[in-house]
Amino acid sequence: MSAHPPPAVREHLARLAEQGIDVVRVVYPDLIGTDRARDVLVDHLAAACEHGLAFCRAVYHTTPQGDVVPVEGGLDRGLPDVTVWPDLSTLRPLPWEPGVAWCLADVRDPADGSRVAESPRDLLRGVLERYAEHGLRPVAGPELEYFLCEPDPAAPNGWRRYADAPGLVYTAGRRGDPDGHLLSTLRRLRDLGLDVSMGNHEFSSGQFEINLVHSGALDAADRTFLFKSAVKELARGEGRLATFMAKPFNDEGGSGFHLHLSCLADDDSNAFDDPSAPYGLSATARHALAGVLAHAPALAALANPTINSYKRFGPDTLAPWLIDWGLDNRSAMLRVPPERGPGARFELRLGDASANPYLLLAGTLAAMLLGLRAGQEPSAPLEGYGYDTSRAAVLPMTLADALDALEADSELTELLGKGFTASYLAYKRNEIERFHRHVTDWEFVEYAHHL
Ligand code: GLU
Ligand code: MG
What we know:
This protein is α+β, with helices and mostly antiparallel strands. It has two domains: 7-115, Glutamine synthetase, N-terminal domain (Ubiquitin-like (UB roll), Roll); 126-442, Glutamine synthetase/guanido kinase, catalytic domain (Creatine Kinase, Chain A, domain 2), CATH 3.30.590. The protein has helices spanning 7-18, 45-51, 120-133, 181-191, 217-237, 283-294, 296-303, 357-374, 399-408, 410-416, 418-437, 441-447; strands at 23-29, 35-41, 53-56, 81-86, 92-93, 100-108, 137-151, 159-161, 196-201, 207-212, 215-216, 241-243, 257-264, 325-327, 334-336, 346-348. Helix 3 packs parallel to helix 8 (357-374). It is globular, with a radius of gyration of 22 Å. The termini are far apart. The structure holds glutamic acid (GLU) and magnesium ion. Magnesium ion is lined by residues 145, 202, 209, 256. Magnesium ion binds at residues 145, 202, 209, 256.
């Protein structure tokens, strides 16, 4: 234990003692938005704040199966460290784990304390710094969907959908949730201080949606990152599996990560509102919207980050398929809800629930900023039901195409940084290579009996 912790650390230690906390779980997001973490006994917290915690940099290059992908700066340099610095201002006691508090951390290069290219939190910070140059502060309101599953040895992957019954679209209560999973999850997320507002049974059976209150973009990303981790952790406590995978089942739709977006001006007014402008949307809003449309193929690489993500897209899904926008039109990729004044905003429906919140926000805000800089105007809004390929371009339909679009979008990659983009492309292209080498159950069913 550090002999003389600084006063700020001492104050936190005193509060933790009052709360009966003896372990601090230090967490930070990796490239795929999963929480990497270490449990630190409170007696050693001051030392962790003084020296940082050492993690192998390859934590950013590790696949969901635990293999290390060769990404520059990792394996090739002999698996060096990064230093993880707890941010004690983010401490929050975990309601379901007595004696434990969560704490977000920042990741730095041990050599010179600089930002690490793969760090999602810093990627978003970097984009937000560019907004400050324009006197704008982006605001985000996330909505996430997920499937809840329970163990079933007879199911193909060992899991079946919880409370599997059709037609419980947008309901609440025991019909679609006999054990009150949603109620207990909502209350625990509230007690965790994540500022969630409401939830319901979603369109598909076993699927739920929970909404987070809008806030500044970094705070919204932090809360969404913790939210996804908390929902998965709580489901494990129920003996279940909560998955934010984009499309886990063939016979049901996918899970979206819809983002409501606006910007505050220096005087705290909503910079997207202008009653005298076309559609009641200010030039700032229209340019930002046009930027998202223009950079959508590249943005898909971040908003739809897995091979599975592209199986969610399609006509008649409530998920997008075409690069379009509409006024209160849910069949479009970008929906402008009817509210104006302080509530003027657009909803990006592109992202799926598997997206890393920091990367989705960083990419979207970067695309919006490029639209602002270019003074672009959006094409005419979609009228009526969408999904008409004669009216708008189709989104990339595979992860490989989206990654190629990201690589080709030099304006976007410049804003996001070449270091980040190179690491992300190398990591994700490895995922595609591994998938192509893998024999799937579809192939066996399709071919084995007939060929
Ligand atoms: N599940 C749909 C999606 O994947 C969205 C359904 C809704 O509009 O809430 O985006
Ligand atoms: Mg929904």
